[in-house]
UniProtKB/TrEMBL annotation:
Organism domain of life: Eukaryota
Stored InterPro entries: dsRBD_dom, RNase_III_dom, RNase_III_sf
Lineage: Eukaryota, Viridiplantae, Streptophyta, Embryophyta, Tracheophyta
UniProt-recorded Gene Ontology molecular function terms: metal ion binding; ribonuclease III activity; RNA binding
UniProt keyword Nuclease present: yes
Residue ranges of every copy of the RNase III domain listed in the record: 51-182, 219-366
Keyword terms of this UniProt record: Endonuclease, Hydrolase, Magnesium, Metal-binding, Nuclease, RNA-binding
Domain DRBM, residue spans: 392-458
Cofactor(s), by name: Mg(2+); Mn(2+)
GO cellular component: cytoplasm; nucleus
Name of the protein: Uncharacterized protein
BP term (GO), one: siRNA processing
């Protein structure tokens, strides 16, 4: 009998890893077959299914996070459209509450468990020492334990998956079907899950006719700004009407349109970022989305093109707040700005009208998302990129304080409708304190954190 070479023996050590990958692909293929038994018209690649069931803990070159982000934005979009259409008398608060329940992790987790998706999810890093032979009948996994004065020993244990992990995988599978087969495929998958959502390209809701809308807004100027001519101009009037503007001719304020437009813009921006940056890391995609889809970004876009002049309202307080915040806005837009990077906190109503106008164009155009993007994108330019992105300063400050063991305190107060946020950081005995005042607490918190960061960086540089 010929001796076995050392190289041959070393080759045998790769068998567990090769078999692990082979088992993973079989797992994905089984789930794909389970899905396609119900959605026969769709062609989904097994690798995309594998990606959608692989968590970050597996330490693979891929994980479900990017697909989860895409699926989350699509689910929010179709759920919002469904609620807007089927509950025409619900105000924004009720619509938002119903949407939260439809897209909540506990609900998605329940749907995933009902379809046995949880059994396919991969949550553990591959360890060759814990690999078991295919066909082994035990329902248990072996786990390494340490016992004094004994060699390495192993015990069996059951696998436990958190509800959020199941929900994340469900969203990732929605994203898989969306980017593979489009919106129809994603909707078929939602139906298979048990979520009956109709996606209509023409939403018809009976509305009072507004005579002579040009008496309320400058139609010509606004339609030129959005590069879109409204078929029903009363939608544009509604999109610019604040709740304080009580006029019998105008049927309602912008809040319902804001609810719809918020979801449409979130979806469009997420898909845009994925299409132009298809290979970026999941974390960077999430950061780009957060930097692009927020009230600060939308409010600055509205102020930059002067939408504040077109808002219909009857609130002296709102007028005072907008005047206070916008008096120096021209200087803050002398260069590229992405929300909190501008250095000024603007009233939330400005962000609201960007979303409500997006909702109005979506309805008026027959649910044409491409038209919404053509109209709103120029207002948001320049769009954030990996090179221009600024991390949320609150998060950056938290990470810096955690890394350097600095002591940080936030305090807040309000006076005459204005929020005041104070941030204090003790950096090894050196005190850095900044206070920011404005209408929006979150924006003030971001601006205060940004100024503290600048102070800390200047001190470290010196």
């Amino acid at each position: 009998m010929s001796p076995i070479s050392l190289n041959t023996l070393r080759t045998f050590s790769f068998i567990p890893s090769v078999m692990h990958r082979f088992q993973s692909m079989i797992l994905a293929a089984r789930l794909k077959k389970k899905l396609l038994d119900q959605c026969r018209q769709i062609a989904v690649h097994p690798m995309k299914v594998l990606e959608a069931i692989t968590t970050k803990k597996c330490r693979e070159e891929f994980s479900l996070e990017s697909l989860e982000t895409i699926g989350d934005s699509f689910l929010k979009y179709v759920a919002s459209e469904y609620l807007f259409k089927n509950y025409p008398h619900y105000h924004q608060g009720l619509l938002s509450s119903r949407r939260e329940k439809m897209i909540a992790n506990y609900f998605l987790s329940r749907l995933g468990r009902n379809q046995n998706i949880s059994g396919f999810i991969r949550t553990e890093e591959h360890d060759p020492k814990q690999w078991t032979i295919p066909g082994e009948q035990s329902d248990y996994r072996v786990t390494k334990i340490c016992i004094a004065e004994l060699p390495d020993a192993y015990s069996t244990g059951r696998r436990c998956i958190k509800s959020k992990v199941v929900a994340d995988s469900v969203e990732a599978l929605i994203g898989t079907f969306l980017i593979t087969g489009g919106e129809v495929s994603a909707l078929l998958f939602l139906k298979w899950l048990g979520m009956e959502i109709e996606h209509c390209k023409n939403i018809f809701i009976e509305r009072p006719v507004l005579r002579r809308p040009e008496l309320f807004v400058n139609l010509k100027e606004l339609q030129l700004l959005f590069n879109y001519n409204f078929h029903d101009s009363s939608l544009l009037v509604e999109a610019l009407t604040h709740g304080s503007y009580q006029v019998s001719d105008i049927p309602g304020c912008y809040q319902r349109l804001e609810f719809l437009g918020d979801a449409v813009l979130d979806y469009l921006i997420t898909m845009h970022l994925h299409s132009i940056h298809p290979v970026i890391s999941p974390g960077l995609l999430t950061d780009l989305r957060s930097a692009s889809v927020n009230n600060d970004c939308y409010a600055h876009a509205a102020a930059k093109v002067g939408l504040n002049k077109h808002i219909l309202h009857a609130s002296s307080e709102l007028h005072r707040q907008m005047s206070f915040h916008l008096k120096n806005v021209a200087n803050s837009f002398s260069g590229p700005s992405h929300g909190w990077d501008a250095g000024i906190a603007l009233p939330k109503v400005l962000a609201d009208v960007i979303e409500s106008i997006a909702g109005a164009i979506y309805l008026d155009s027959g649910s044409d998302t491409e038209q919404v993007w053509r109209s709103i994108r120029p207002l948001l330019e320049p769009l954030v990129t990996p090179d221009t992105m600024q991390i949320n300063p609150v998060r950056e400050l938290d990470e810096l304080c955690s890394r350097e063991s600095y002591t940080k305190t936030f305090s807040k107060s309000s006076n005459c409708g204005l929020a005041s946020i104070s941030v204090e950081v003790n950096a090894n005995g050196c005190l850095h304190k900044v206070e920011s005042t404005g209408m929006n607490k979150k924006s003030c918190q971001k601006l205060a954190a940004k100024q503290v960061l600048q102070s800390l960086k200047a001190c470290n540089h010196d």
